[in-house]
Amino acid sequence: MIAQILSTMLPVFVIAGCGALYGRYRTPDIQGLNILNMELFVPMLVFAVLADQQAPLQEYARLALAATVVVLGSGIVLYPVAKVLKLNLKTFLPPMMFNNSGNMGIPLLVLAFGDAALPAAVVLFIVEMLLHFSVGLYMLDPHTSIVQRLKLPIVFASIAGLAVNLGGVPLPAWLLETLNMLGGVCIPLMLFALGVRMLDVDFSDWKLGMLGAIACPASGLILAWPMIQILDLPGLQVASLWVFAALPPAVLNYMVAEQYRQEPHKVASLVLLGNLGSLVVMPIVLGLVFAEGYI
Predict the structure, then answer these.
(1) 42 with 186: CB under 8 angstroms?
(2) What does the alpha-carbon distance between residue 52 and residue 252 come to, in Å, rounded to a whole number?
(3) Is the pLDDT of residue 113 over 60?
(4) Could you tell me the pTM of the whole model?
(5) Where are the transmembrane segments (predicted)?
């Protein structure tokens, strides 16, 4: 079991470490890389996985429902905590709800459970991303146009991929292979960019960051448990949901907070200390998942 955890976590740490080491001596345009990743490589991976006829997406509907409950329920569970501690709701709740299902979630699930977990990882990522760009942006600015929120390449890729899969439209093998090769770029690039971002850790709000590092995975895991009991998910999907529920805040929360001027320095602490905290949380969760024999 220890060997399984190490074989899963070490590539994540090594690639992120390479990003941190490179960023320490160079100043890479991470914003440009992230834009390229989110507008080209990630949509290609999403479309390729969703359009592949070998992935029957009807089987992932319950997983998508469970992920929705975990994301939105985390905000409801932690609302009283934020009120009691007199935290700014717009600053604290979005990072607790919208987790790192892209930069960390997809690579971690594939490394932990193999390529068979890729459809589940993509479904979880799409659910989180769509909720982030709809509910999440509404929380920060209720006046933002819904059309503007959803006018993203990943949304179009998701719709197109679902249409191809559910419509039974066959795609040439060479086209799927091309899309998979281009989409495959996004996974190591996500981890590399995450490593560079880790250099921006701001310890001035370390108490808030530590609270988030505990509250984010705790609320997700609390909500995942009843969903697993109620929905009777297959083993691989159960394992994927446990990992998804324990993921730290998404780096995107910081970018959005900066764009909306919503105390970005505090959000940065929540995001980056939460991701540092995952170095402890994720091995524990993976250990429990492997011990339970879901895979």
Answers:
(1) yes
(2) 28
(3) yes
(4) 0.82
(5) 30-51, 63-85, 105-131, 152-173, 179-196, 208-228, 234-255, 267-291
